[in-house]
User: Fold these one by one.
Assistant:
Number 1:
Amino acid sequence: MQPDVEHAAPSTGEEALSELVRFENVGLRYGIGAEILRDVNFSIHSHSFQFLTGPSGAGKTTLLRLILQTLRPTRGRVRLFGQNVAGLSKGELAHLRRRMGIVFQDFRLLDHLTTYENVALPLVVQGREEASYRAEVIELLRWVGLGDRMHVPPVILSGGEKQRAAIARALIAQPALLLADEPTGNVDPSLARRLLRLFIELNRTGTAVVIATHDLPLMDLVDARRLVLAEGHLHIYD
Amino acid sequence: MRAASCSRKGICISMIEAAPSSAEAAEPVADRAGRLLRGLAERLGGRDAGGGPILPARSIAGRALVLVIAIMTFLAGLTAGAVHLVADASADWSGALAREITLQIRPVPGRDIEADVRLAADLAGRTRGVEAVRVFARSEGEKLLEPWLGAGLDLSELPVPRLVVLKLAAGAAPDFTRLKADLAERVPNAGLDDHRLWLGRLKTMADTAVLIGLAILALVLTATGLAVAFATRGAMAGTAQIIDVLHLVGAEDSYIAGQFQRHFLRLGLRGAAVGGVLAILFYLMFSLSAQHFATTPGAEQVEALFGRFSLPAAGYLSVAAIGLVVSAVTAIVSRMTVYRTLSGQE
């Protein structure tokens, strides 16, 4: 580890840490092919910070999609926020997803909406009136440094600005769990470090964070739990 | 570059490169207010963050669908108008014919035709349900033959039958069995024509025309529904990434279906308005040109048979209603298509 290593939010033991995600013997295969993930067991607790890593194609994004339940496991049990997801309807899953934020490497901002509208999207789909969240969105955009880019479409934002807009969108609904899929993959090392510090700050406010990355130097900057995927198995290094 | 920025949650970060807050701080209040007002006006103009279109209008082949819906509404409107014209003409024929019965008294050697006419009129006048009896004078009967035989001829030597027209009371269904029996006994050269054969044929023809019109309407609406279903699937394919993002930020299928429904309802209303207005203009022009040519002899005969080619107010309302139905079909089909497609996805 490097000397200027950062520390994620410490678990004091005084806080009641709830289990946000629990995978038990989860396996996934596409069609009749070999299993991509085998006997995956792990938990993610509130206030925790962890990296999900492994070589390209190891199944990091697939694991995140399983957490988001946009993919269903072929075997095993997944519990989200204390609920077994197997029996949940699509509507109930949508409500669970509202407690999670997701950041993608390719940002996935909607180009026909402004930055403000993109960030407000999770609240819009919840049916909230604009008057109830407008100040909140503006404050968050200013916080991530996009206060003067609110009314422009994403196409004219730089890569770093897009990533910050995507992070703001993931955070606006104040999720209990933030999932980031290669969030630093499309930015330079300097901005990658700044984004990492942003995630650490978020974690200190109580949001559990999972960052999927294969950027080892970046991970070395933080003393955090690592979930390592290799050949379909998950190894945990606390 | 700003030194630090703090959110209301108490998080302070200093890693963000951009320094908007310092720029904002330096921005005069008036400029800032102006910028906010511009932003507000921009959003009120259709870019409202809360109520703005989640689906990009330009990514969907909306213009082609609007054109298809306009054509379908125009055709459906023409059909609805035609059904109205035929139904009204049929009602006129039926009403006029059903309320008139004709007695025909043929001249027979050895019988006084004038006495027979009077007797027949007397018998008919005593029948229950007959409101009025009108005896056609000989000259009137001969005048009826003028279109076929020409004017100025002496028809006194010809055995031209005499006519007695009976007007029936509205809603009455007189029993002519008794009258027929009396006529057979006392005026055997009289014949009773209640137009039933004609009425039956006309009604069958009109009913068939109305049924064909309704079938065409159903076909047009079905074709519209299919076109919308295909367009919706195309739109979903073109916006797959948007749908994916919406799902990831917690949108339920009903929300996404609602967005598509709103989008297609807008397209449907636009297309239906164009098609409906064109159909109404068509009938207005048709009515005006019918009035223009109404004085020609041919037009008089056509009008006698088919009535006036003028759509009643109810006909125009039907065309407008067709537009609303087409819009509703567009919205409902798009919602159902999105639901079915999404429910088929994991």
Number 2:
Amino acid sequence: MTLATTHTAQAPSARQIATGLGLLAAAILLWMIFGIWPEWLSAALQGKKAFVSAILDGVTLAGLYFLVASGFTLVFGLMRNVNLAHGSLYLLGAYVGYDFANWTGNWWFGVLGGTIALAGVGALLQILVFQRLAGDELRQTLVTIGISIVAADLMLAVWGGKTYQFEIPASLDGAISLPIVTAIRSNGHVIFLRFPFYRLVVLAASVIIGVGLWLGLNRTRVGMMIRAGVDDRVMLSAAAVNVRLLFVGVFAIGGALAGFSGVVGGSALSVAPGEDVRYLMASLVVVIVGGMGSITGAAIGALLIGLAEQLGLVYFPTYGVVLTFAIMVVTLALRPQGILGNARLRAADPPRAASVNDIVTAEFNPATAALLFALILIPAFASPFLVYQVCAQALILGLIALSLMILAGYGGMVSLAQLTVAGVAGYAVAILGPNGAGVLGLNWPLWLYVPAAILIAGAVNAVIGVIAVRTAGIYTIMITLAVGAAFFFLAQQNYSLFNGHSGFRGIAPPDLFGVSWRLPTPFYYLCLGVAALAYAAVVYASRSTFGRALVGTRDNPRRMRAVGYSVTSLRVSAYFLAGLIAGAAGVLLVWFNGRISPGTVSVSEMIGVLVISVIGGLRHPIGPFLGAALYVLLKTFAIDLVGADRFNTLIGAIFLAVVFVSPDGLFGLWRRAAQASAPKPLAEP
Amino acid sequence: MSANEAAQRLSNSSVYALELEAVGRRFGALEALADVTLKVGAGERRAILGSNGAGKTTLFNAITGDFPPTSGRIRFFGEDVTEFPVEERIRRGLRRTYQVSQLFGGLSVLDSIFVACRGVSRSRLSLLRPGARDATFAQARNIAHLTHLDDVMETPVAALSHGQQRQLEIALALSGAPRFILFDEPAAGLSPTERRDLVALLGALPAHIGYIIIEHDLDVALRVSTYVTMMHNGRIFKEGLPSEIEEDDEVQALYLGAAHG
């Protein structure tokens, strides 16, 4: 009992300290905004104007991020549906709004049109797609990825690659003076801060919508149902609530919020392809930090990320994204469920889907030998173009997808950062070995920089694993996606190590043992050798103690602890091993391309690796190679097939079909066909 | 402490497998476990009885660390394990079964037991394939035999019957040289035959392996234990020999009345 009383006495005191510190920080900030700065402070922070502008920019950007993320978090909270097509909804809203505004000649109609149209799209998505996959969170998430691929490509087809600029009504345009003194001239003239009026309007709109959402959720009957659904969906439907209608309604609100922010945000900045990914990433980081399913959490997260981004831009331009990323990692370390997140959501069961369950035991058999033999013979028949561009590339992508398959299939951890890890190895080769970019290039010998690159990749993936395994299930996809995107932005912004946007060129495999490994046929055999080795290693290790234990951790982590395993070290070890394979593939990839740049590890390429693995099938280590072969063939010959450069629509549609029809991918189709054509066993007497 | 009790305690050994000192567990405002002080000797077989919500499973979760206690200390064979993660306690010889089976749906029966046996050995993360004559596999086959799982050794766990899954729960707890086992309602959902097998299996355990068993079926509980602890509302409420507990009026009223009423 004594212990209980000390507990209750301690808890508020800790909170009081936090509140006190918060008030102090707020007071200092207020003084910094409205007070007159002494010289030393101006010198330290590049002047008051820069600082206050960054704060205001950060807060208005936070408003926009909040608008986008609130729809995302609302949908997740009720339906556990991680809608990775949310960024596409944002961009579609912006395009539709632009067309409406143009057509009617009135910006306000554009806002209205974008919002209503996207509410409809949201509702339709729920009715046509997600309702059919109810209860299978992983497949729902995969479907949203497929939709985002197809949507991005179709939007590119309709609206083209150009940048659109909204015309904001005159009443909202221009800059206004704020009652913030930035400087006092020697003649006593006071200079006030001027700030774009429109941005303040966006901020006000987000505050109004935020308060409205909060009131709607906390003070209305429907809001009560939604909150009840966040806690326990089954109980909610048992309480005679029409959950189906509620879900459609929430998805419509989520879509409307995305459409609204698309028009409003597009008017503040601009509308162009790629914005979908940017706002998806912003939403992900905001809700990871703020806590999934919480509107207030989204507001806090948006404020932190918006401020971090703008202050980072002013004070450490090449490492700004590191600040955002650091906030995410610190949050995950201290509170894996996010600042205001519900711990139960985080600890939710790992995704159960046919696509990753029921691993088919892989063994070495005559079929494997026949396949290897056929692959060895390819260069005798195929043109150098096919050997290099199609076969070697498919093997490399297959290797990266294999590293994903290890984690997803055996471990139940769908990590999207595997291409990032390959990219890290590629960068390591470019930086440690010789490169033609004339930047860095430490010129280490081959026997040193190749193993180093592979080990660095393993270590980096282990670190990603340490971050990712603090949460489970769908969260793994989100966190690894955010980590990969963070690396992309870091590589793009940083010139001292990654040489920024242009990256490194002039990297080639060496001449060794009298063979020029950059020639198509030798390079193909090099890739085949590495792929066969990795495949054999995976098949062998899948029946090792570690391999069996990894499957055990996938199926029941709690029981694994209760028979003596540290689930964390098991999972992190799996990340490390998968990182070695991805690293080896990364070395081959940088040799294959002859260069590496942020584009190699972009979000769409990361998702490409997931597409390959899922299309091929996650139940057997041959799946990733099947998927990669199809992917590369389509990519190479899509123009001949569909007439225009609509590869992404094609591959996205195939991906969606696989997720819907054959969750175990090409491997599953092949296996079923083989079983159907095999002679039937004798009927039992 | 009655003379009877003291004699019982010391009959097996003077070493305590488990010593709980004022262990408590809170879930928010709910005090699921309060001030539980308990000593169980090495090799002792103890039954814990109590109605639903008495805190029996919460006590197990506190002992294994699945949900660590919010107050008090726990010692396992003299070593303070209160702050240890679950797996560290397991590696010291503690085992448990779950009330609701916690199994590996994607592994075969033999693989499950094999993984459990390796969990307490240094080769638990080995990347080498175990050979056909691997000692751990022999051990796993032996445990499968003890728990009547011979016929389904290669069957995926997800395809087992309820009774077989309960057997596998016990098999996993027997894996890897346990010193002390917590059985959480092992007889739940078993047929009368399977119950008899269970009683025989528990009786045939080597003498050095002690256990605590939570069991609602008094026929099972009192036959497989040498001492009984009664719990009620998160507290220990009475202790005694099986014969004493069976005849105790208060127990009849509280436990049996609650269970059958």
